[in-house]
Amino acid sequence: MDFYFGGDRIRKKSPINTKRGAEEHEQRLRQRLLAGLPLDESAPAPTTMPSFAEFAVEFMGTYVKANNKQSVQQEKRCIFDHHLLPAFGERKLDEVRERDIEQLKAVLVDKGLSAKRAKNILAVLSRMLRYAHEISVLEATPIIRMPKVPPTKMDFLSDDDYARLCSAAQSEPNRLAMLLVAGDAGLRKGEILALEWGDLDLGAGTSSITISRSVWHNNESAEYVDSPKSGRARRVPTTDGLRRALLAHQSLPGKRVFCKDDGSGLTPGQLEVALRAMCSRARLRQIGWHVLRHTFGSHLAQRGASLKAVQELMGHSEIATTMRYMHLAPAHHREAISLLEAVTPRAPIDSARPSGMGTEFGHPAT
Questions:
Q1: Phi, psi (rounded to 5 degrees) for 108
Q2: How does DSSP classify residue 13?
Q3: Three-state SS for 74?
Q4: Which of 79, 95, 150, 181 lies 20 to 30 Å from 40, alpha-carbon distance?
Q5: Alpha-carbon distance 67 to 105, whole Å?
Q6: Rounded distance between C-alpha atoms, residue 291 and residue 91, angstroms
Q7: Per residue in 254-297, pLDDT tens?
Q8: pTM of the model
Q9: 219, 218, 217, 199: which is closest to 209 by C-alpha?
Q10: Beta-carbon neighbour count of residue 258 at 10 Å?
Q11: DSSP-derived secondary structure letter, 16
């Protein structure tokens, strides 16, 4: 069956071998051509490339909703609203190219954002474009060159400063317990807020804390309970001081260990106010709760805890995160080298010199 369309000759075989069947088939083909569809009826119809803003809605409603915690979803939503949509929102998704991304990086620098923040923003953009490629919306993705992020300076308290801070809270059992769950057990702020009495085993010889949830508040102060940052629960044995502080604190009402007088949960702001007050009382510089978590990890490393033990107690999903603490172990390099001496005693240089070799190369021994 032959027919002409737009000056081109089209040759196709009709599935029905009659004149009427051929005419009906030709009519269907002409309608497909007029609609911009492929002649092959089994081929998928071409789709219109969505705009960046349209696909961002799909990305947030599918991939992000299915794979990220509430706190991460909120963070990505802020990145889209404040950075990515203003830069690319009206463009077609396949129009975002390397040059545009480099221009975005320059804008982020002009805004005074840190390299780490810029990297987080670009990581969200990269993940969305790769997802578009994975589901065949994009044929290829642009190259995104991430900025180099300098190592983050880790702040922690010395033994003396930590002792002063705890001493300043001795008259308030609830605040002392707050300090110790962070500094003696390494809980993050959201994990402190989510801690429940059922998570505690305060028996002599078995005392421990199970960390299985974290609380997060959005900008409207709505509370969300989720898994810890690593996505996995962990169990941390308590120090004797932490066990005694938690026992002294048990008279407060509520399911949560740290709560208001009416039993309702504390907010992150209230936790910060409590820490600022204790720092002032101890005459220490103002710190955040994460400094106490760093204090826990740093003191473990300084006392010779293994890399694996520090990772498990702090709930790090990546060993590279734990490695930041290990340079604080003052003897770990010396102990590693001493293992060589234990296996094969190292001979002094003079006794190891071959006979006939002088003190200088090429001269006989005297």
A1: -65, -40
A2: -
A3: helix
A4: 95
A5: 26
A6: 43
A7: 789 998 888 888 889 999 999 999 999 999 999 999 999 999 99
A8: 0.69
A9: 199
A10: 22
A11: S
